[in-house]
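Support request from a user on the community tier.

User writes: "When I paste my structure tokens into the form, the page sometimes reloads and wipes my input. The last time it worked, I copied everything first. Here is what I submitted, just in case something in the input itself triggers the reload:"
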């Protein structure tokens, strides 16, 4: 009998210790769960102007952006302005470049004069090359959208016994990217407009606002509300 009482007391003491240390907690108040709860003290009420801006929706296009660095800077600014990743669409367009059928760099004024007289006699149009100081003086006979087309023109002139010609690249092929933001609110747009010297420069234009998805419309129409009835942000 005495042994049973001792065992019972040990069990009671063990249960009390477990309860006191929180070992018997269901986990509802675990720190990780508490951290996931909304904290009212971190909410702040929006002013009427901000609430009005938040309700406005616009579509904008930024670009074309001509370099990878400009694209990286723009996406970083979008993130800092509160535009979530994936809320914009990247549209890329390629420029094929420009090649010319041109003379070699002419060694003297006399050589240039003879070339010009030859082309005038054959009624072949030409113009001085512009924008390439290291290639002066040079005459341009024709411009082409591809290197192959310029090479074909050179082959044709070679068959007619015209010498001293070459294919010269005037502009390298480039790829431009335009970022389309189909739905941005007024607050996000105001932050973007406030950026000094943006990487997209003056290349910002409006576009047609995309229709909101049902889920997105529900979220947008149900902001947090403070005690005064004004929308609140976290």
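"...and here is what came back when it finally went through:"
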């Amino acid at each position: 009998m005495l042994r049973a009482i001792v065992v019972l007391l040990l069990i009671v003491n063990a249960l009390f210790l477990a309860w006191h240390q929180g070992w018997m907690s269901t986990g509802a108040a675990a720190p990780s769960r508490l951290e996931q709860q909304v904290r009212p003290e971190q909410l702040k009420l929006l002013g009427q102007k901000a609430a009005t801006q938040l309700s406005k929706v616009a579509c904008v296009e930024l670009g074309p952006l001509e370099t990878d660095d400009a694209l990286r800077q723009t996406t970083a600014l979008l993130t800092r302005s509160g535009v979530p990743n994936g809320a914009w669409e990247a549209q890329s367009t390629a420029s094929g470049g420009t090649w010319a059928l041109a003379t070699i760099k002419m060694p003297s004024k006399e050589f240039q004069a003879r070339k010009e007289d030859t082309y005038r006699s054959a009624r072949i149009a030409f113009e001085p090359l512009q924008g390439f100081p290291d290639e002066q003086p040079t005459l341009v006979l024709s411009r082409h959208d591809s290197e192959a087309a310029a090479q074909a023109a050179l082959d044709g002139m070679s068959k007619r016994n015209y010498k001293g010609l070459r294919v010269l690249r005037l502009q390298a092929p480039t790829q431009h990217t335009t970022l389309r933001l189909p739905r941005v609110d007024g607050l996000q747009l105001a932050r973007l407009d406030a950026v000094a010297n943006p990487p997209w420069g003056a290349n910002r234009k409006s576009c047609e606002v995309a229709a909101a998805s049902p889920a997105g419309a529900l979220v947008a129409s149900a902001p947090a509300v403070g005690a005064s009835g004004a929308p609140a942000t976290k």
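Agent notes: The reload is a front-end session timeout and is unrelated to the input. The CA atoms of residues 129 and 139 lie 5 Å apart. Residues 98-172 form a domain with the Alpha-Beta Plaits fold (CATH 3.30.70). Escalated to web team.
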